[in-house]
Amino acid sequence: MNYTILVCCGTGCIASGSLSVVEALQNEINSQGANAEVLKQIKKTGCNGFCENGPIVKIMPGGISYYKVKPKDAKAIIAQLGDEPVEALLYRDKGKAVLTQKENPFYAPQVKVALRNIGEIDPCSLDDYLARGGYDALKKAINMPPNDIIAEVEASGLRGRGGAGFPTGRKWRTAAGYDNYPKYVVCNGDEGDPGAFMDRSILEGDPHTVLEGMAICALAIGANEGYLYIRDEYGLALKHVEKAICDAEAAGFLGSNIFGSGKGLNLSVVRGGGAFVCGESTALMASIEGRVGEPRAKYIRSVQRGLWNMPTVLNNVETLANIPVIINNGGKNFASLGTEKSAGTKVFALVGKVKRTGLVEVPMGCSLRHLIYDIGGGIIGGRPFKAVQTGGPSGGCIPADMLNLPVDFDTLTSYGAMMGSGGMIIMDDRSCMVEVARYYVNFLAGESCGKCTPCREGLRQMLAILTDICEGRGKEGDVELLEEISETVLDSSLCALGKSAPNPVITTIKYFRGEYDAHIKEKKCPAGVCTAITGFEIDAAKCTGCTLCKKSCPVSAISGTAKSAHEINKNICISCGACREACRFEAIKTVQKGGLANAD
Amino acid sequence: MPEQNITYEDITPLLLKYPKDQRHALAIMQDMQRHFNYIPRKGLEALADYLGCHISGLYSMATFYKSLSLKPKGRHIIKVCDGTACHIRGAVNLVSGIERVLGISADEVTGDGEFSLELVNCLGSCALAPVMVVDDEYYGKVTTDRLPEIFDALRGEARP
Question: Quick one: CA dihedral B100, B102, B106, B110, positive or negative?
Fold first, then answer.
């Protein structure tokens, strides 16, 4: 039997030390003696999605998966190959050990289309990609008339995964219809939404899929040149994509003569400059052209006049990753997944206060409850769920009584949130909704390019009001004023950044008005997050004297001896809440900070 | 490297890696940023010369893009992720912890030029929140008590 040991080497697992696990495994293979009949090889794969439990090691064949592997575990893993699994490294669901990912409640309900290869292949190996049917779709497409390629994508019902949900086939057809050349195909890898990392994962873990998708698009619209705009912070993704382009060119899958057909596509990588607004199509194109990434008014759409004023198709990473599957299996087949108006699957990043954090791919239309409770395992520490923030800074906060809503492009939008690029940030009762709104407005005010007044000035004023509310200086009428400014910013901003910026404020006011009122009228933060108006006290009756809070306090404000009730010195306390997170007995109470609320 | 010690000989090789085309302006400036730890005025001047564009356009780019800086950064760059997941899992406390340990706030450099602190947008490693990255090395689930040890190890160590 030959064994392949797949070690996840995505950014998450590398941060948890997977590279030293690879080294230790290799050393063990060498030192435990080579057996001519047993071939053992190690592969560094892309992100498995379950980053919180990294480093992840999977043994093929069989698929036994180990989590939180340390270098010292290498000995047992190698020694027990094909034997009894190493019990201590298996994932435990409600105390029961889980052998493979198929039985793991995090993976079992998932349907992998865009993520089909990730975690299974070495992203730096073209052969690995080919072994899983890579570039078959391109080979097929090269002999298809462009119209048939587009028809197939139209039949699939695929909509842009970057957030706006524009039908991909229609975009391609429009671009194909223009008769001026050169045309461009651009991949948007400037994933800026906080809490979303599906694009990073795909670029890191399966770069060839994206290139193949771009090449098929180029054939369909008649482009010979393409760009991948990728965030500079995504070092590993940049490295893997650049290598993939070189390998694909050398193999004749890209470059001037694809599969000897005489058709060509040259791809280049552009590193983003760290500006959120560059995720907006016209700003992104300005940035590729070597200018300041400011959006323009879209009287003329970029499919007609995009990059250097030529017809341009801009698709998101995840959208492109679906293309090879559509060409291989047919658009109808793809459309059989998901809902009528939102076909296929969507990758979500389940993060925040959820038990199982990670990347999840499910058919569109599944409920929020299914995502958060069945796959995500519910809230950390069994605390009550308060809200889920979807769609990044342009999205909204959805409260607990709406958990049964299906997740697709249209449903969430009708409730003031949006699916967006797929970030799902789960919040518990210790997340302050006013502070969350302030956080997003602060983010967007900082990222506003400043070109149009409503976005630039409106967000700044909203931030000032929200900061006042969070710091205990809120006044009657503030909420109404926020609503009024929100309306102006929504209606009159130039680009999608401003047009959606007030969503977090509007939805938190709509669903969590009580929290705003508590901050404004009672100068109280119910979640105990806003430090200016929150203090902490230890409930002596509940305190067991375990000393955990004392150890966690960064400013040594807690005194007390083991097994006796502790006390917080309010003069030293900075209200960071570290003690409350550490306490296992609910002994830390939030109280109103006396006297400071109105200080200015 | 202080501005007066930078010569055009230091800058030219960075320019020549790219063809004379406006679309490479951002990439060249990113390379300068990596090389000098900031964008020196001489660098902007040389680039304007090379591309045949006006320096004001480059200046507006250098101030627009977050990855570019006109002021020298520390030898070790500490990036604290303030994406939503990190934010609700304590990024703010992490920043104030760093402020206490190193005595610098966001966008500042320590007196000895060793460290600079930046608050950055989501790094896409939300499962490890709160995340801190120092010189491309990721630290996940960082607690403030680990900070002195991490920084002590880096202090004096050469920049990668």
Answer: positive
